[in-house]
Amino acid sequence: MSSASSAPEGATHTGGCLCGALRYTIAGEPLYAGLCYCSDCRRASGSGCIPFMGIRASALRLTGKSRQSVSRSARGGEAVRNFCAECGSLVFGGRSGMDEQHTIYAGSLDDPSWFNPTIAIFMRDRPAWAQVPSGLKTYDTLPG
User: Fold this and answer.
1) Which domains does the chain have, with CATH numbers?
2) Is-contact 89 39, C-beta < 8 A?
3) Which of 28, 35, 117, 124 sits 20 to 30 Å CA-CA off 6?
């Protein structure tokens, strides 16, 4: 996936859930950023798509407790989504301490202006009413 960058090198960004019990700090820049229109992400977010960023696990610091939801991913493995154990807000994807990368859901960012999507994935599943911002590279499923 293509790189997304909008903050100075070495910058940190923060975010978390609605109630503040599950928080994170990200050091550095996302590996990629985009919108996912797959049916799982639509159902998890309650929206037409979910805005996401890929982050190296080593760049992510978490505080607070999360609950996990596990489902089958498009690649056949497991898709792990983490919600705040208190308020239920969707915050990040992946298994802490196990995965090399995590997905941060852009709606959980304290400063949403940091999110700069460059791709849209699972366009084949996009509902007709779900908008796609201009200028994004689109993929019917996942990038090559």
Assistant:
1) 12-125 (3.90.1590.10)
2) no
3) 124
